[in-house]
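Quick one, T. Sequence first:
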Amino acid sequence: MKTRKIGEVEVSAIGLGGMPMSIEGRPDEARSIATIHAALEEGVTFFDTADAYHLHANEVGHNESLIAKAIASWGGDTSAVLVATKGGHLRPGDGSWYVDGRPEYIKQAADASLKRLGGDAIGLYQFHRPDPAVDYADSVGAIRDLLDDGKIRMAGISNANPDQIRLAQEILGGRLVSVQNQYSPAFRSSEPELVVADELGVAFLPWSPLGGISSASALGDRFAPFQAVANERGLTPQVVALAWHLSKSPHVIPIPGASRPESIRNSVQAAEITLSGEELATLDAA
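Structure tokens:
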């Protein structure tokens, strides 16, 4: 598979988002592990997770543990695999979400994530979501400390605006490597953040690149031009959407979620698709 870079690390141009394997409607563990193994077989080397990707209150880190187990049980070479996780966004187990950006909590969460993922450091750790009750600089300062202490190898942020991206880059001393924001055919308001990430040369990781768990399957129905291009090329509209993401910038690495092996096998086709200027203009206008 074609590759792109996060920091100095080369990863697959298409990653795998682990959230659908751990929250509402999740499959059984065997199918989830088969999905992760299918991704590895297809050359996926970038996996996205978070400690908040779980369903019940007593299973914080469910998806981190699942991904770690699946990677460890795969028979192939996993030396090039990069797992990114996040901290600072929590689920109490009743379906709701809340944030905690206190530096002491972020450091505690990172320690717990490291234990679940294994190894001597987390490959990429991202501050999950700004906490209005905590100075953003203080939250990112905790990420900087984790980086300085060697507990994480690379640092990123998620759900950030342009000013927060620039501030994070300053606080991290130029070591920010990723910005993970929502972006899809249905949600394009992160264009300014993509532009700033491009300007700074950091990876832009669109979450829910197909429109979210409940909407991904209906992408072609909601956006007819994506279906039309898909029909012309003998592809699915989901693959066309991921190829559209990749066309936006060499720093974009979409991370579609999957809970079935066939879903990720379909998604990775996008890395080999080059859309024409006419197709891109049509899709941009959709």
